[in-house]
User: Which sequence fits this backbone?
């Protein structure tokens, strides 16, 4: 009986002795995957939640404003962008193509970086309008309407971290997808189209 | 020379931090609000950055989160309310103190398990190499194996004696 037990004990101590090595191997595997992981590829809290309430002006026209309810009725993409955003220049032609070829309704949410009333800095809205018209005439205008969120309140409610970011919103105002970064053909085909085509 | 230079750099680093910390604090009426705000900006994580809290980051989103935190604290929001607001939008990612959940419990258990494992290793090593431990081990081996062998031989001798 005792002789049968001794090799088992040795096996156990062998496992315990190699535990640090096993642990190290696990860490290496985790770090290897972490090395190639996209830090902005993480689950969004917003998905599955309703579009937040807001009351914001039109980018071009004084006195015209939009609310959550005025946008609902049909599915649309909400695209956060700005003239300062370099990636948006690559995205605008593709979004314009989506609008023209597939009739995708795209609402622009303009992200201004300058406006900061707490420190006495106010955005120059006429200048923004001029820059916007210039940029859209150069790269294409995919937008059905454009909303201006100078105080960045809706942007904060939408957990925007930068631009571009794109939300897929259904006819009832539910956020189905929150994509950080550029929308291009690959992203559309792999990530957005499967959801969009079911709407 | 190098030591003096290091000292100067260290002093500048220390000074710069205190300057940065006071930048946002002018608007607070009570010391309590200021304390809560300081804790929050150190604890909330900039969602745009690679591992920076919102106090240290110059990203616009971090600035907006600081502004929102300041407004909420000045309006009497509790620390937890501000954290819930940010985590409700930017996810657990935005808070440096993750809650204990099934998916995060390993963060708490792993260090404890490590300590237990190494204490166990240290105890084993120390008992193995003391003469006392070695002596015990020898005695045990004698008792278990050779005692049996001895009994077997005695029985065999007795059996032989019977057959005679």
Assistant:
């Amino acid at each position: 009986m005792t002789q049968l037990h001794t090799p088992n004990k040795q096996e156990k101590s062998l496992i315990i002795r190699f535990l640090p090595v096993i642990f190290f191997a696990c860490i290496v595997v985790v770090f290897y995957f972490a090395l190639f992981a996209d830090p902005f590829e993480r689950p969004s809290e917003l998905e599955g939640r309703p579009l937040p309430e807001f009351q914001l002006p039109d980018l071009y026209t004084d006195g015209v404003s939009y609310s959550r309810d005025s946008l609902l009725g049909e599915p649309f993409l909400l695209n956060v962008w700005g003239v300062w955003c370099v990636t948006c220049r690559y995205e605008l032609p593709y979004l314009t193509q989506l609008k023209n070829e597939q009739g995708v309704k795209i609402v622009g949410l303009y992200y201004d970086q300058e406006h900061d009333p707490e420190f006495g800095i106010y955005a120059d809205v006429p200048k923004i309008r001029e820059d916007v018209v210039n940029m859209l005439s150069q790269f294409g205008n995919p937008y059905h309407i454009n909303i201006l969120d100078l105080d960045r309140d809706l942007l904060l409610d939408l957990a925007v971290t930068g631009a571009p970011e794109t939300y897929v919103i259904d006819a009832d105002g539910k956020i189905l997808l929150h994509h950080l970064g550029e929308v291009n053909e690959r992203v559309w085909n792999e990530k957005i189209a499967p959801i969009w085509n079911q709407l | 020379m190098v030591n003096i230079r290091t000292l100067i750099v260290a002093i500048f680093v220390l000074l710069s931090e205190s300057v940065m910390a006071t930048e946002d604090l002018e608007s607070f009426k009570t010391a309590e609000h200021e304390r809560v705000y300081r804790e929050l900006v150190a604890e909330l994580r900039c969602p745009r950055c690679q591992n920076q809290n919102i106090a240290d980051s110059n990203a616009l989103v971090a600035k907006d989160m600081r502004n929102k935190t300041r407004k909420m604290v000045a309006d009497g929001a509790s620390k937890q309310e501000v954290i819930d607001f940010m985590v409700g939008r930017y996810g657990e990612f935005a808070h440096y103190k993750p809650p204990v959940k099934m998916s995060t419990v390993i963060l708490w258990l792993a260090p404890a398990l490590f300590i237990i494992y190494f204490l166990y290793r240290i105890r084993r090593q120390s008992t193995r190499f003391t003469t006392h431990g070695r002596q015990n081990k020898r005695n045990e081996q004698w008792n278990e194996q050779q005692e049996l062998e001895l009994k077997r031989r005695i029985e065999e001798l007795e059996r032989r004696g019977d057959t005679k």
In short: Chain B has a mean pLDDT of 82.
